[in-house]
Design goal:
The protein is α+β, with helices and mostly antiparallel strands. It has two helices and nine strands; from the N terminus they run H-E-E-E-E-H-E-E-E-E-E.
């Protein structure tokens, strides 16, 4: 027998609650003589987007330089979404080899506090986006960071694109 995952349990629970409410409403309507009734709507829940961002390997960052920001967005929702902005969501890290070599202070951040975008991600898909000059590196970075790929924690703002 196959076990249900968290999302499956939530859907099953919502369906069971709707069935109980609908049956109770039907029994009440059957015994009621005045003909009034009620309706019930249950909203679905959204699944959190998964974001992965990193520097562009084909254009490595150097102190004082800029490079593209590559972002992958996984939308596991049953509706499309539009991402409208990105911001830095934590500490930028160099790849494992460069961290082992001493790259602690990367000097890398996104190029502006908030990056305005208009990215459409259809339902149940993965979108890949490239933002030219989305990253910058200051002169304060450790020399061991040269040639590193940087993992960029980002936060996205957006909305459902469903009409």
């Amino acid at each position: 027998m196959r076990k249900l995952d968290r999302r499956g349990k939530a859907v099953l629970s919502a369906a069971a609650a709707a069935a109980v409410i609908a049956n109770a409403g039907a029994a009440w309507a059957y015994w009621s003589l005045n003909g009034s009734g009620t309706g019930v709507a249950i909203a679905g829940s959204a699944v959190e987007l998964k974001l992965q961002a990193h520097s562009d390997d084909s254009a490595p960052l150097y102190p004082g330089g800029t490079s593209s920001l590559n972002v992958t967005v996984t939308n596991q929702n049953d509706f499309p979404i539009t991402i409208t902005s990105l911001s830095l969501g934590g500490t930028v890290l160099a790849d494992e080899d460069h961290r082992a070599a001493g790259c602690r202070i990367t000097g890398v951040s996104i190029s502006r506090e908030t990056l305005t975008v208009n990215w459409q991600v259809p339902k149940n898909t993965v979108g890949a986006f490239k933002l030219a000059n989305g990253l910058r590196m200051t002169n304060d970075s450790d020399s061991a960071c040269q040639g590193a790929t940087f993992i960029i924690p980002v936060r996205a703002n957006g909305q459902s694109s469903a009409s």
